[in-house]
Design brief:
Elements (H helix, E strand, L loop, with lengths): L1 H17 L2 H13 L5 H12 L4 H26 L10 H33 L6 H8 L2 H28 L6 H31 L2
Helix pairs in contact: 1-4, 1-7, 2-8, 4-5, 5-7, 6-8, 7-8
Subcellular location: Membrane
InterPro entries: Cytochrome_b-558, SQR/QFR_C/D, Succ_DH_cyt_b558_Firmicute, SuccDH_FuR_B_TM-su
Pfam families: Sdh_cyt
Amino acid sequence: MVEHREFFYRRLHSLLGVIPIGIFLVQHLVVNHFAVYGEESFNKAAGFMHDLPFRLVLEIFIIFLPILFHAILGVYIVFVTKNNTKRYGYFRNWMFYLQRVTGIITFVFIAWHVWETRVQIGMGNADLDYSLMENILSNPVMFWFYILGVISTTFHFANGLWSFLVSWGITQSPKSQKIVTYATLLVFLAISYIGVRALIQFAYGV
């Protein structure tokens, strides 16, 4: 019974990492990328997302609660799973190890990002707009922290997408898993570029 429950939780953990968290991640990075086209473009895109009907309900049940469940179970998995990269130095073992490392980094990054761009704003009079991100990322320490956070998050999603396809039985043969490895690498590079390019725009205006 316990094994079945753990199996269910891990499958749900994998599913939530792709739907809805992964979809939200891509959408969030795309909205941020509007900064590349100028301050007005970003503010319009951010304003559109802010003014969505039932935004708070959507955020709680489609974003925050899934992320919280995924994060708590993910931290549990990190501490109970044994890594064997020293003994078995295969590519997938390293991906497994990096998935756990980037999971912890992503958890810290998201917690800080939510605090900095949502909680503090709620306690003050600031708006979530271009100038807010510009002020945050003008600090070199914060800029590199965000770079690390975004790359960790995009890797965690892309590699998690590979694991999702395998654990849900979508890619079972070695050939299909190899193809998906290359496909998820392209996903990682594409969304990393989108995210990092926006950070450079906020920080340096280029």
